[in-house]
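User: Hello! I'm new to structural biology and keep hearing that structure can be predicted from sequence alone. Could you demonstrate with Helix-turn-helix domain-containing protein? Please show me the input and the output so I can see what each looks like.

Assistant: Of course. The first part below is the input, the amino acid sequence of Helix-turn-helix domain-containing protein. The second part is the output, the predicted structure written as tokens.
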Amino acid sequence: MRVADGERPAPQRRDARRNREALAAAAADVFAELGLDAPLDVIARRAGVGNATLYRHFPTREDLIGEVFRPAAAVLAEAGEEALAAEDAWTAVEGYFTRIFELVATSRGINDLVTMAIPTVPVLADMSHRNAATVGILVARAQEQGTMRGDVVATDLLFLLGPLCRAVPAADGLRPGLWRRHLALLLDGFRAPATHPLPEPPIGDDRLDQLFAGLWEA
């Protein structure tokens, strides 16, 4: 029935809201277990509904991903704001990436979000761009403070941390928190003073999405 101008639409039926919430909860669990490529029919079965109900609420996989991981995007945004507010840039870099790795250790889905470019999901594309901007600011500040080597750029840090981030679930499966050792080791390579100059120029920020897409296709 058409809603007349000025009238509020009828509230969503209780069972429809319940189905949507059940689908989002089931998707969070399944994505955490299997990653973002998890079969959607598995999610529908886990929620106790049919595929038609799933597609009625979430017409595309991207719609479902955006709904499920909006809270995770908010957590990462908060972590970035806290890092940018810190006075010591090196401590902020360590703390920021530790927060990210702690989050991805809990979910294969979040790991996919952080390490893969998904431009078709606005909230996640915004998260990716915000993350790159935050890292760029932190790198520049650490270099100004003399704690990070001066011949690196944000894309260097993001490129090296991407594969390590992908390995976090496997490392955590061997021993919870094992990834902390390797994160500390990697970050130490960015400390000043540098032992050896870098042999190649960096890529630009505009190539970052392309770089990550090629990384997982290789």
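User: So the tokens describe the shape?

Assistant: Right, they're a compact way of writing down the 3D structure. Reading them back into a model, for example: Residues 70-217 form a domain with the Tetracycline Repressor; domain 2 fold (CATH 1.10.357).
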